[in-house]
Amino acid sequence: MDVVAISACVVVCAVFYAVAKLVNKLAIRDDASKFEGPPSLPLIGSAHLFIGGGEAILRRTREFEKLYCKPYRIFIGSQAYFVTSNPDQIKVILNSSKTIDKPDKFTDFFQPWLGSGLLTSPAPMWRVHRKLIQPTFSSNILKSFLEIFAAKAVILVNRIENHVDGPEFEVQKYFSLCTLDTICGTAMGVDLEAQTKGECRYAEATRSVLRAICARAFQPWLHPNFIFYRTRLGKDHQEKIKFLHSFAENVIQTKKRQILERTSRSGSVDDEYKDCDPTAHREIFLDRLVRLSRSNETLTDRAIREEVDTLILGGSNTMPIAMSFLMLMLASNQNIQHKVYEELYEIYGDEDDGELSITAENLSRMVYLERVIKETLRLFPVFPVIFRKVTEDLNLGERTLPKGSAAVIYIMGAHRSEENWLDPLKFDPDRFLPEKFAEQHPYSFIPFSGGPRNCIGFKYAMLFMKTLAATLLRKYTFTKNKIVPVENVRIKLESELQPAEPITVGIKRRMQKTELTSDTSISP
Asked: CA-CA distance, 180 to 319, in Å (whole number)?
């Protein structure tokens, strides 16, 4: 009798939950009807408008940006999304305690891969893990990485040597291996030697998984797990995630073996970590996670893997994209490339063009190069859209986003808006001169997101990209046979921004400063 009563209670609770959820969705739909937005069909919402893949998604988003007042609403299935590129509205969304979490569908689709890592974890867990991990991105630790940055950059320079004076070649695969090597060698303390081995399976698997997540997000009929994982896309997705988990676990086990060997020599775990004073911010990322898991079980082995998966994704997948677009912009704007070289020459003079002296002081002097990188990230933000879950009604001024909906921040829209930037599609690094940028709305440029849940590794990324670009430009000149205006560069959305066709550039050996003539083909 008790079993029957319990079963009946469970059924009644489930029915009430389903009814409450339906009522809430109907209320959100009623609220959303007050906003402008594209037409919506039963069951699938506006998903049919995004058929055509990643290029079509961005193309449609650009069209909606011109058609509707912000924020405008889009339904994908039964979920209401409110899209904005307005800096004032973005500021409210990114800084509100009501929008710290990511939408349920976002976390559902990423969870099989990243679990509850920093990117996907709910707010209470995110706060704890962010506080634990933040010290591993301190200035002191980042400075200690510069030697590895420089060494990995030199390997890349040598690997592309055979392309000198040859036809244009695809650059992203070289950057993928270099950044994977670098993130594992710095934050993980494990040398993969991916560049020397020429293995790029991790990058290929990552792109496949992200592509599948993006495709699934815009196809509501693939949202249910029991459907998705019975498709060819879903089965391949599972295999790729299995490989990525295996990769991360191998990195962790390699680190644990290193720690065990050092511990056996020093005599105890305490001795192993005696020089890793957390208050001095000396521990690197993976060392800190392993120590925390041993000392007080703050992190489980699974939690460590999820954070490792998240960090490797953030480091090894985003920087190759940014570097590829950077090389495209430099090759397409020879006068700007020449100005970057002039700045590097002022810093290094006739120093050997092999392994540069990469120091924090030298990197801080690369102010023009930094402006060039920022301008590239403005036009080609690696994450053109980001999402936030609205956990309580959120007032944006004239409009209120209803509880249970999702806010979509269209970063590329903010970065390329004529309302925010003068001549926005022109590649102009000088718009980041301090006196000019001071006039910009701070949320009109957010390549690393903003607010408390911004990218934890943005300083790491900037230092590494400056190191890599400086090393390459001291050795080579980058060229482009057919220069395409920014607005015509084909791009697509695959969870992150990707070129719709491979980015290729040509390279020539850089002439020494004393060999440069007054060749007008390269204007100062």
From this structure: 10
pTM: 0.90
CATH number, domain of 189, equals: 1.10.630.10
Asked if 488 contacts 521 with a C-beta cutoff of 8 angstroms, the reply is no
Question: Which structural domain, as residue segments, surrounds residue 149?
Answer: 131-386+410-515
Are the beta carbons of 177 and 200 closer than 8 angstroms? yes
Q: Is residue 272 part of a domain?
A: yes
Is residue 106 a contact partner of residue 120, using CB atoms and an 8 Å limit?
A: yes
Q: Tell me the per-residue pLDDT of 112-130, one tens digit each, with 9 for 90 and over.
A: 999 999 999 999 999 999 9
In a domain, 485, yes or no: yes
| pLDDT averaged per 10 residues in sequence order, the chain, 524 residues | 50 41 49 85 94 94 95 95 97 97 93 94 93 92 95 95 96 94 93 82 91 94 95 97 95 89 66 43 82 74 92 90 98 98 93 76 97 98 96 94 96 97 97 96 97 94 97 96 96 94 96 55 36
In a domain, 38, yes or no: no
Task: Give me the helices (H) in 352-457, please.
Answer: 360-364, 367-379, 411-415, 434-437
238 Cβ neighbours under 8 A, 6+ residues apart? 112, 229
The answer to the question of residue 352 being in a domain is yes
The total domain count for the chain is 1
CB neighbours of 217 closer than 8 A, spacing ≥ 6?
A: 76, 105, 106, 109
Cα separation, 392 vs 284, in Å, equals 37
Bridge partners for 245 per DSSP: none
Element (H, E) at 26: helix 2-32
What tens digit of pLDDT does each residue of 422-458 get? 999 999 999 999 999 999 999 999 999 999 999 999 9
Other Cβ atoms less than 10 A from the Cβ of 134: the count is: 11
| Positions of E strands within 357-494 | 385-389, 394-395, 400-401, 406-410, 476-479, 491-494
Which tokens belong to 424?
A: 């926005």
